Amino acid sequence: MAFKEDFKNGRWPFGGEGQSDTVPIPKGDVCVKISEMLASADEHVGEYSFGGLADTLPAAPGLFVDGVGTISLPLHPAQAEKLIEKCEKSRFGYSTVTKLDESVRKSWQLTPDQVEIKNPRWRTGIEKLTDMIASRLGYKGIFLQCMLYKLLVYGEGGHFLKHQDTEKEDGMIATLVVQPPSTHRGGDLIVYWGGNVEHRHEFGKKDGTAPFFCHYAVHYADAEHALEKVTKGFRLALVYSICLPASVRHLKRDSDQTLGVDLTDVISSMEPEHESFALLLSHEYTKKNIADLGSGALKGIDRARFRALEEANTAVSADKKLRFYIAKLCVKVCNRLNEEGWESCGYEQALHWYTTSGEDLGRCKDENAKVKLNFLNPGQETLMQLWRDYGVFPICNRCVGGLPPPRERPQPHVSRACS
């Protein structure tokens, strides 16, 4: 059953009401103000994907592979074939296993221990590039770690259909692709946002610089992306994982002072009857990411909005402070078959709670779908846009009044629900 059909009765998860094109507004004047203010936090969001000429990197990295020797660039066909003999075919993740299917992915790969980069300027170049990447991702002043994941080789017909990267390293937030000088054709990297093409990275082919310089592309780890078919020649790529250090949860970015003061005033005006509000996240996060880094794992627009709330909350008096939690929402839609076809006959809800430091507080099942959340909507998205991709979101409530913290709430029977 199509997603839109699941909620055609106008009842959406956790108390949402309206048609698919309805733009929900939070309940309460104070929550409406907070939602509107968080929209301005979007101005401080890091870029979703970007790339271009990697001018910090030498054009000759000094790539060396045992049994092949130093790799000449652009890659010569004869040496490419020799290199491929040393590689293994690339697999892709499918559920909990990896599969080999060239209709989905066709490329060859080497692990970092099979590759040596001999040019001493490469390391310093990568460090400078990583520093720039940190700033553009919204992590200015934070030392992000950049770790080589694989060397990839694509021949004619090589490609990778639309997919999302798995978390390859602890704290991974983004993927960096470096393409050394190359004369291949095709093989553009396409990055999607909300199902639509957001960025096309052609690595210098358009302006003719591809054969002479290194180029790069960066995208968030959870971004859907695809590599178009290589139509001629061979494409070489070095893939790096961009990771947050474990200490990042203690680091802060420079805040928007005006927004912070205004948010502090509004939060301070909240009364007990306002109870709580929730904010859906735009990115996806693994359980391990949240457990290891808590709110430090948040990235992009999620990080900007949450930091704005968190920093404003530090200036609020003790009796007015909000308490923040991270929760994973799960919704199980139940369908039945009648003479007219499949129809929705209700759904079950569940919440899995974490502290902002990553402590697991347990899971609550809401079989009768009675739990209602007051969702902020700073992006003015429709119900369809908000729920098209289920995810993890921060939820906050008042220290006094409102909802008690999860560990103090009665815990009904818990079972796995699908989202």
From TrEMBL:
<keyword id="KW-0479">Metal-binding</keyword>
<comment type="similarity">
    <text>Belongs to the iron/ascorbate-dependent oxidoreductase family.</text>
</comment>
<protein>
    <submittedName>
        <fullName>Unnamed protein product</fullName>
    </submittedName>
</protein>
<feature type="domain" description="Fe2OG dioxygenase">
    <location>
        <begin position="142"/>
        <end position="244"/>
    </location>
</feature>
<keyword id="KW-0408">Iron</keyword>
<dbReference type="GO" id="GO:0016491">
    <property type="term" value="F:oxidoreductase activity"/>
</dbReference>
<dbReference type="InterPro" id="IPR005123">
    <property type="entry name" value="Oxoglu/Fe-dep_dioxygenase_dom"/>
</dbReference>
<dbReference type="GO" id="GO:0046872">
    <property type="term" value="F:metal ion binding"/>
</dbReference>
<keyword id="KW-0560">Oxidoreductase</keyword>
